[in-house]
Design goal:
The structure is a single chain. This protein is of the alpha+beta class and 313 residues long. It folds into 4 domains: 61 residues, no CATH class; 108 residues, Tetrahydropterin Synthase, Chain A (2-Layer Sandwich); 61 residues; 55 residues. The strands form 3 sheets. The protein has a 3-stranded antiparallel beta sheet, with helices on one face. Strands 6-7-8 form a 3-stranded antiparallel beta sheet. Strands 1-4 form a two-stranded antiparallel ribbon. It is rod-shaped, with a radius of gyration of 59 Å. The termini are far apart.
Length: 313
């Protein structure tokens, strides 16, 4: 093999090595920061990229996708209650602009250092907000805590080249003693509400029963009044009919030349029979001798004579 052929082969190998060393690929969702002799040179986008062989190197590949991290930390309220938070934080590179990517690449030594700073900033901002609140207020201020943290950190995180997309407080707990006391407070409030509702229900029931009883008494009284009125009208009509019947009977007996005292005797015997039929066990003592009959007749005649006697002047 001649020297020219060897030189050609060596040249081809060197060319292939140079080409292989200069060709780099950047995955989708990432950007690459390159340096020349340790100094920033350029940003390489996803796809096939050609670098200056042996001079230009990829310093860091930066993901532009959203990333999530879970946090667990503790805070103390204004009334010295320990609050335990379990949170999830979603963040990403703010954009793919050159200045942003340079901040992401050179502000921190590594992404681990950035993440440590971000987590501690979130914890500190949360603790600062919780320290101004009482433990009874914390559970109702979940949204306010998130808004306060984002407002405090958005500008700072943007200077690092990142954006805090979301912060979710998934769990907020207290010490066991506080949790037990809170459960007792809730239970006592529920018992108080139940007792109040039961008292209101009893009051309504008693009120309705009283109204119903009053209505029933009023209806019964009105019915009794109507019945008494009707009974009185019935008695009056009965007496009127009795008087009319007696008058008619007396006229007919006078027309037939019959002693009208028989009417009194007939009324008296009918009264005795009525009392005997409806007496319900009561005992009636009557004088059934002829003398007793005569005495009764004389008394009836005397009553008749008194009724028909003319009045004095």
């Amino acid at each position: 093999m001649s020297a020219s052929q060897i030189a050609l082969i060596v040249g081809a190998v060197v060319l292939i090595v140079l080409i292989l060393s200069s060709v780099k690929t950047v995955p989708q969702g990432n950007v690459a920061v390159t340096t020349v002799f340790g100094k920033y040179h350029s940003i390489r986008r996803p796809g096939l990229n050609f670098l200056i062989p042996f001079v230009e190197k990829i310093f860091r590949r930066i993901s532009t996708q959203n990333r999530a991290v879970e946090l667990q930390f503790q805070a103390i309220t204004q009334d010295q209650a320990n609050v335990y938070f379990t949170a999830m934080m979603v963040y990403s590179v703010y954009n793919e602009a050159e200045d942003t990517v340079k901040n992401v690449a050179f502000k921190f030594v590594s992404e681990k250092d950035f993440l440590t700073a971000l987590v501690r900033s979130v914890e500190g901002s949360t603790r600062g907000f919780v320290a101004t609140m009482r433990q009874a207020e914390i559970l109702g201020l979940r949204g306010e805590i998130v808004a306060e943290v984002k407002e405090n950190l958005d500008v700072t995180v943007e200077t690092w080249g990142y954006h805090l997309i979301d912060l979710q407080l998934n769990d907020i707990t207290f010490d066991q003693a506080i949790t037990t006391s809170m459960a007792q407070v809730v239970a006592s409030n529920n018992l108080k509400a139940a007792a109040t509702n039961e008292g209101d229900a009893l009051l309504i029931r008693r009120t309705k029963e009283g109204e119903a009883e009053g209505t029933a008494i009023r209806i019964a009284a009105e019915a009794e009044r109507t019945a008494a009125q009707l009974r009185g009208q019935g008695v009056a009509l009965f007496r009127e009919e009795v008087g009319r019947g007696l008058t008619q009977a007396a006229r007919e007996m006078e027309a037939a030349n019959v002693d009208s005292s028989l009417i009194l005797f007939s009324i008296w015997t009918e009264s005795i029979r009525h009392m005997a039929e409806n007496g319900k066990g009561n005992v009636l003592f009557l004088d059934g001798s002829p003398e007793g009959m005569q005495k009764q007749m004389r008394d009836l005649m005397a009553m008749q004579q008194i009724q028909v006697a003319p009045k004095g002047p």
